[in-house]
Design goal:
This protein is an all-alpha fold. The chain is built from nine helices and no strands. Helix 2 packs parallel to helix 9, helix 3 runs antiparallel to helix 9 and helix 7 runs antiparallel to helix 8. The longest helix has 25 residues. The structure holds protoporphyrin IX containing FE. The site of protoporphyrin IX containing FE (HEM) has 17 residues, from helix 2, helix 7 and helix 9. This is Heme oxygenase.
């Protein structure tokens, strides 16, 4: 199967993932802002529930042995534990462990791209948390930058994903995975913030 014109016109895998999911990203971004998660601590608590469900559902992928062989250090990138730390810091009850998503290794790359990329936009969200008087280690740790900076870890992740060899079907699966991940985030947002 030949890769589509869109996928071929972008030079690297992550650029192709970005090109294929930009519309999904922007709709998720709009939905997050429409949910006004930083208006007060109660709404921020709901946002933490969204993050708990999304990042929690990916934990098995971050811990997957095969994926860690292909993307060394992957297991250390999950922000799920930081989300739980944030919930505890705000005295919020921890929800049950979310159901784990189960996808092919190539689809998993798309899901992980979506999850890791959300760290970049988190710079903006982290600033918003300051309006709630939250410090990085008191309720907003999962949005805080890594001590080495956000860009370094993202560049390293991108280099690893771009360096993998995939066939055309797997390339398409990775794209489908990224789109499914944004879809999942949207669904969770709508469920947690019903109004
Ligand atoms: C209000 C919410 C959000 C805002 C304002 C936002 C904003 C941004 C911005 C400004 C960037 C580009 C940063 C840069 O290039 O330095 C970015 C990248 C990204 N964001 Fe978001 N974002 C939001 C939510 C999310 C969510 C919820 C997800 C995933 C579930 C997500 C996934 C991504 C991905 C995958 C990238 C990387 C795109 C690429 O360069 O390949 N974002 N975001």
């Amino acid at each position: 199967m030949l890769a589509s014109a869109t996928t071929l016109s972008e030079p690297s895998r992550c650029k192709r993932l970005k090109a294929a999911s930009t519309r999904d990203h922007d709709s998720v971004d709009e939905l997050v802002m429409a949910a006004r998660p930083f208006d007060d601590r109660e709404r921020y608590g709901l946002f933490l529930q969204v993050q708990h469900r999304f990042h929690g559902s990916l934990l098995a992928l971050y811990r997957d042995e095969q994926l860690n062989q292909r993307l060394p250090g992957l297991v250390q990138l999950s922000r799920f534990e930081a989300v739980e730390t944030d919930m505890r810091a705000l005295d919020l009850a921890l929800p049950p462990m979310p159901k784990q998503i189960s996808v092919s290794p190539a689809q998993a790359l798309g899901w992980l791209y979506c999850s890791e990329g959300s760290n970049l936009g988190a710079a903006f969200l982290f600033k918003q948390t300051q309006r709630l008087g939250l410090e990085g280690d008191q309720g907003a740790q999962h949005l805080a930058p890594h001590p080495d900076g956000r860009a370094l870890h993202w560049r390293e992740f991108v280099a690893k994903v771009d360096g993998l060899t995939l066939d055309a079907d797997e390339e398409a699966e990775a794209i489908a995975g990224a789109i499914a991940a944004f879809d999942s985030y949207r669904t969770i947002l709508r469920e947690v913030f019903p109004d």
